[in-house]
Amino acid sequence: MTAAPTTPPATDPRHALVLFSGGQDSTVCLAWALSRFARVETLGFDYGQRHRIELDCRLTVRTELARQFPQWAARLGDDHLLDLSVLGQISDTALTSGRAIELQANGLPNTFVPGRNLMFLNFAAALAYRRGASVLVGGMCETDYSGYPDCRDNTLKALQVALSLGLDAPMTVETPLMFLTKADTWALSESLGGAALNELIVVHTHTCYLGERGQLHAWGHGCGHCPACALRANGHAAWLARTPSENP
Ligand code: ZN
Q: How far is the CA of 205 from the centre of ligand 1 (A)?
């Protein structure tokens, strides 16, 4: 009798909760977690995004990861979606016009919700505690988003200490993309899941600020012109230029 394929032993017995939006960065974070931790659950936030396409992409990406990577399927646990529509009351610039002008002078967009990632991680930590997870994984990154102070490495290290003290339980905040460029992120996903993972990311994840799926470019779906599309397209082009022999 042929033995069923077994899942290779995870390198880390802890359970992780990944902040998973359905975009490129959080999909790479999910693959990173699945390659390390014994069990991995996912968490999305519904905060009244202008476009719900990214939320719709979440479940497709999870399904495709489990289908194409059987070694990860056994570790992939439940998905959670929290309603944080209350954030809409804070992001409404009509209510905070004085401060909004100041924020815009700092170069941040007027949809900026101050400390949004801190709120997300606090909710994630409470859920992780209830689910028996002691690692939070997020795609926060200093390299491309230096305008967001709550994405900084020291901000999140301080929050890790506060969460662990406040919960009286170890809660590690992992940010595998913190010091990576967008080109580095493509290289990381290739190292984790080869060309198949990068193809999955190109076809099934979402990035476009305008909510367009439309045409499939080499780097994925999107309008091709908004800041999110430009960032992703430029990163993909830089990655291709870095490894021309492997990427025709
Ligand atoms: Zn776009």
A: 13
